[in-house]
Amino acid sequence: MYIRECVTTNKVTKTKYVTHRLVEAYRFMEGSKAKVRQRLILHLGTLELPKSDWPKLAKILEARLVGQSSLFEDDIQMTTAADKAMDYYSFVQQKGEEKSARKQRQTFCQIDLESVEHTMTRSLGPELVAHAFWERLGFDKLLQTCGLSSTEQAWTQAVVLGRLIEPASERQTRY
Predict the structure, then answer these.
(1) Would you tell me which of 118, 148, 158, 159 could form a disulfide with 143, CB atoms 3.0–4.6 Å apart?
(2) Taking 90 as the threshold, does the pLDDT of residue 133 lie above it?
(3) Cβ 160 vs Cβ 137: under 8 Å
(4) CA-to-CA distance for 173 and 175, rounded, in angstroms?
């Protein structure tokens, strides 16, 4: 096992992020040829250790994963990094077990789509169109010059657009 450094770049901000992973190399036969592949064992986050200490950390983690102790456990910095990695590994394992348990407990029932009814549905199309025209006509600026606060402007817009979309009494207008 060894530690690999992975650099990812945010496409928007062009910021580069460095993370580290514990990787295992393994061989397999494809036809008559032996091929080598790598398998991700553990995400380590960002390591603060020098690159020269990575093989020692890999040995510590490999030993811990199989339930043994390592000779390099004396170094406090290595032990701290290994503890952090193993805590994260335990967290990920626990989440995986919870997910599989939820998947085993889930139940499904069949629904006849022809018999399903819905009531009290809301639409968003007319509200979006009315809001776009409200902004295009500049009613917010007009209300601001009249001295209305931003909260009062929002309530005014809700009442006016509600009455335009569904003309009814003020009590029937839904905010």
Answers:
(1) 148
(2) yes
(3) no
(4) 6
